[in-house]
Design a protein that fits this description.
The structure is a homodimer of 401-residue chains.
Chain A lengths: L2 H17 L6 E7 L3 H13 L4 E7 L1 H10 L10 H13 L2 E6 L12 H4 L9 H8 L3 E6 L3 H7 L5 H15 L7 H22 L3 E6 L2 E7 L6 E2 L3 E2 L5 E2 L7 E4 L1 E11 L4 E3 L2 E3 L3 E5 L2 E6 L4 H8 L8 E7 L15 H4 L5 E5 L9 H6 L6 E5 L6 E5 L5 E6 L2 E2 L2
Parallel strand pairs in A: 1-2, 1-3, 3-4
Antiparallel strand pairs in A: 5-6, 5-19, 6-11, 7-10, 8-9, 10-16, 11-14, 12-13, 14-15, 16-17, 17-18, 19-20, 20-21
Helix pairs in contact in A: 1-2, 4-6, 7-8
Chain lengths: 401, 401
């Protein structure tokens, strides 16, 4: 068995453990062409745990390319209705979800019109955030290399070496090299939870993030806490790790109190489109000006998807205690990159960090949830108390609390 | 561009022409891992014709293997409900369907329990025959080689040569080498239509098929005609070629008047399971004894799916005028093999060959439709008139009418 094969086996086991698949559950798997090996082992692991049926969709970004390039303008927002029916069915069944993240290929949409590409966000579905907030499903995201993706991360390596290098990085950041990856993640989760609790206890009214190209104030909801340690519990009490790896602590901000400007510190691949050099100006919570060096029209199309797509649904802080940021690699996979650097997300907000019904009613709602990375060693994060006092929160990615 | 790439391009064009995809239509594509190249070009061709959305499912028989090997006994018949919703949605939308036939791999299910394998017939769905009979969708099946399938058809060739050989055979039998494959198929369709009309005009009461291991009498419905020439018309008048290639003429028999015994002349791969050396005894229309050299339990599980699964839904005659039978190759793909030799099908009957409402009410109903080949140069086919006179129909695969 090759080293890659061993990693695939361990990651499959970890994904099914992360989702905490229960006997008798339906398991939806979101995969794509090029990830067959991991997908098949995930299915085996899920059946070994007693899954009733493992329902895999293999997406293919080259089919999206054909659509974005050739389909009529007025059809590009169309989503087949069975995709929503499938997701609501899973929610009604209290099933599990496993998503294999990372772009199939960064080349497929490279030379298409970004404004058209930004209209087709599949396999992301607008019902996804709603079902997530119902807490009826236990789920886990893990990164899954493809050869084409690896070639974009390591463009100077021969294809086989790039693929090996990406698997090596994934194995490292997913802690597959630990004697017991489960324990490694439980331990790391404990650290993140304690960081989150310290920040929650300060009950800041808002945060100020400032550094090169960024000076942004983000209002916080009074009853919102910070969540870290990457585990959730379903309404049935099934504890699960939604993200492996997870190195962030996050909360749901006040969608009406975001002001200033922000510059992304990393490019990102969103639903197949590459978006680079994002610069956004906010006023009264709304993104009033959206620019990017590449893919600006895709970004504008995403932010125009609905009313909430131009407001924030998440702010997350990442310190230097994780394994991803230290690699200094841009992965073009939000799951990896968002756990390397502090980030914010346009679109839907999570309910579980927010306690009071009044605050929950104020959470931003959208069919979109698009994270982008704004953190770096140069980004200073301050907390501002309700009285207006300022306290340092992060400096050079180190906690100041 | 390699020769295989040229064939893929021509076959994609032919499939979309065969289905006669209309501007604004939804197009469902049934494909599997290993057929990405043809799938993507089919999508491009469909969008070029104005398709609204090309909805592709890539199946993976290795996922079925994990299920058949590991899932609990009482879950094996489960089918996720969204698959039926998707098909009914297509029917309501009057969309198009393109299916890429041929097994992804004959190895995946080789050593699993055939009785368990026979319970999971996906991607075949029981609603498929019902939607077909509604005539709301225009559709086309074409064969699509994979490397693993090719290795099973040509076990003595190196992998690359086997793949090329299978593409060469597919190109030949799909008449991709014709100056204009459309005209080639229209011409061949005309010949088959004329053969079908000659046989319909005889208004036989039943057929007798006899040869080595076979002596079977099949009753015909009085108002059933023979159909050939591989085209259908939807309720909207969209003319399409459901099968490319098509070399058969067929009808829907009387499900209560089938008596005798029959032996298959070819192995077959059905929903991933290999079934070889089929021998079935019929009495009063029902298969009362089912045997096979390999996969007998899979075959019995299929015939036990519902009441109609053990009665006949189709009888088809194939003469030696086509291109497939002459190759003498067993393809393990029903679309190819059923157009090489006369065959019968257990399960659902087609409505369109049957005229009178009384006869339509008698057609066999089932969620299954499983063709198997019984034709050979040694099989004699006779027609028996209502008065009991016997007339030769096929001898050594040559028409006697």
């Amino acid at each position: 068995m090759s080293e890659i094969e061993k990693w695939i086996e361990r990651l499959a086991e970890l994904a099914v453990w992360g989702a905490n698949v229960q006997p008798g559950q339906i398991v939806l798997v979101t995969s794509c062409v090029g990830k067959e090996d991991l997908t098949r082992l995930v299915a085996r692991e899920a059946y070994l745990r007693g899954a009733k049926y493992v329902d895999v969709l293999y997406w293919d970004v080259w089919l999206k390319r054909a659509r974005v390039e050739l389909a009529a303008e007025d059809t590009l927002d169309f989503v087949p209705p069975w995709l929503a029916q499938r997701l609501y069915w899973l929610s009604d069944e209290h099933g599990a979800r496993i998503t294999l993240t990372g772009p199939q290929s960064l080349e497929a949409l490279r030379d298409v019109d970004p404004a058209r590409a930004g209209r087709d966000l599949l396999p992301r579905q607008k019902e996804g955030s709603e079902v997530l907030n119902r807490m009826t499903t236990n789920w886990c995201l893990v990164p899954a290399p493809t050869r084409d993706w690896a070639a974009s991360v390591y463009p100077n390596l021969p294809e086989a070496d790039a693929y090996r290098a990406l698997w090596e990085a994934v194995a490292h950041v997913c802690r597959l090299d630990a004697d017991d990856p489960h324990t490694a993640w439980e331990t790391r989760a404990g650290e993140l939870r304690s960081n989150a609790e310290r920040l929650t206890d300060r009950r800041f009214d808002s945060l100020r993030l400032h550094g090169p190209g960024t000076d942004l104030r983000i209002g916080l909801l009074p009853s919102a806490g910070w969540i870290g340690g990457s585990f959730l519990e379903t309404v049935d009490g099934i504890r699960h790790h939604p993200n492996i790896p997870s190195e962030e602590i996050f909360t749901t901000p006040d969608p009406d109190r975001v002001d200033g400007y922000v510059s992304a510190t990393m490019p990102l691949s969103y639903a197949g489109s590459l978006i680079e050099g994002i610069r956004i100006e906010f006023s009264g919570g709304r993104a009033v000006r959206i620019d990017a060096d590449e893919g600006a029209d895709a970004l504008r199309a995403i932010a125009a998807k609905d009313e909430g797509a131009s407001r924030l649904g998440e702010i997350a802080l990442v310190d230097d205690g994780g394994r991803i940021g230290r690699l200094g690699t841009v992965f073009f996979d939000t799951l990896l990159d968002e756990n390397a650097a502090s980030h914010i997300a346009l679109g839907n907000g999570y309910e579980h960090p927010v306690e009071s019904p009044e605050d929950r009613a104020r959470i931003n709602r959208s069919g979109v949830h698009m994270d982008f990375m704004i953190g770096s060693a140069e980004l200073a994060v301050d907390g501002i108390t309700p009285a207006g006092d300022v306290a340092p929160v992060l400096r050079k990615n180190v906690w100041q609390l």
